[in-house]
Amino acid sequence: MDADYQRNFRAVNNIPGADQEEPYPSLSDFHDYEPNLEFDDTELTASVANDLEEKISISGLEYLESPVSDGTIEENFEEELVNAPSGYDSIACSNFLDDEDEDDFSDVSRYGIVDVVGDDTVGRRIIVVSACKLPNNKELDHGRLLRYLMYTLDKYVEQDYSLVYFHYGLTSKNKPPLSWLWQAYRAFDRKYKKNLKALYLVHPTNFIKIVWQLFKAAVSTKFSRKILYVNNLTELQQHLDLDQLSIPQTVLEYDEKLMAKLNRPSAGSQGEKSQVEDASPPPLPTQQFGVSLQFIKDNNNGEVIPPLVRQCVEFLSQPDALETEGLFRRSANFAIVKELQQRCNQGLPVDFEGDVHTAAVLLKTFLRELEEPLMTFDLYDEITQFQSLNKDERPRHVKILILEKLPEDNYQVLKYLVQFLAKVMDRCDLNKMTSSNLAVVFGPNLVRSQNEQLNLSAIGPINMFTDFVLVNQDQIFII
């Protein structure tokens, strides 16, 4: 048994002499780490089977029980660990994932296991995985589930993103085998880990923590810092907007029971949001975030282009900014973004202090928080049908949407934005932002449904529509 594992084992079991460092990351230790090299297969110098058998042979682990446990979380998993396969070589894993290129995952997506819910405050895309939506193992092909997860993440891994995993609802009937968990970890290589900024594990049980200890030898320190245990929704609310997450009802109910047991209010309690909204004051005349284009125009001498949009575009149009690699794909400092939003809403001067990513995040945040998206709610259904159109029909269809159906002010702002993004594309050899990359970033910020939920089936058409507009902007917009 190696020294590191002995130290971790003592820490988990409160054995005297244990390292005092907290073995599991917590929200209080959260930092916004820059992308780094995350994982190298050469770290796996011993077989998975040997590691598992060595660690399983240790006795004395105490299992933590939720104060409101109803038996849904399966904790008796030693037998499954012992029977885990001896590992997957790279060839086997590759063959598993590359059987065929599939983009029709309706059989998996219909369960709603994965949701893409937009961006957080600092511009990271948020992807939610809910264990309670996993069907019975007899109904689900876990191989296809893995390919579906990779298919979804492939659209976003080139930009900063966060993962939220709601663990409640995992049972002995729907829990994937440990061998699948290991295979998934091997499949999600550096491409997926590099830009992952945070992995929130919500309502963790001892199952997660022990499995984490078993896999820890194969996980880099840099990646482990991104894994955050979140005991309840109140903790999660410190970093993410819960209303944006579309939290499953069963998870909300579980959290309420958990917090009631602790005599604390639940952040996920329904009704709190409406009370806050009813008590919220009317917007200041200087406000730009979270209001309509018409409101901004009326309070800025009839100027169609919002002041913040113009300031961000002018700043980002400088050569050094345009040539910054990862422009619009990197996140920014949370505190700085919030401060600049407040200053902007109060009509105070905004200084980016030379930070390209701060300006880029503010521009995306402005678009995302518009009272109505730039491509209005009325156009959502037509845009999400774009992928089904014949290629010969697409130019005419887009022109009708933009030139005839889009309100004049929205048209002018969209034209201003797209002409700027054309400059970004012209420097794609340096900033790596091609039309397709920009479409992934801006599509969901330009187009969204009225219920705020981003349907995974709509992502492809929205991104394709946005890409088409960017590539053909000189033929679409009237000079």
UniProtKB/TrEMBL annotation:
It comes from the Eukaryota. Residues 9-32, 264-283 are annotated as: Disordered. One of its GO terms (cellular component) is cytoplasm. Residues 291-477 form the Rho-GAP domain. One of its GO terms (biological process) is negative regulation of endocytic recycling. Residues 104-259 form the CRAL-TRIO domain. One of its GO terms (molecular function) is GTPase activator activity. It holds the Pfam family RhoGAP. This is Rho GTPase-activating protein 1.
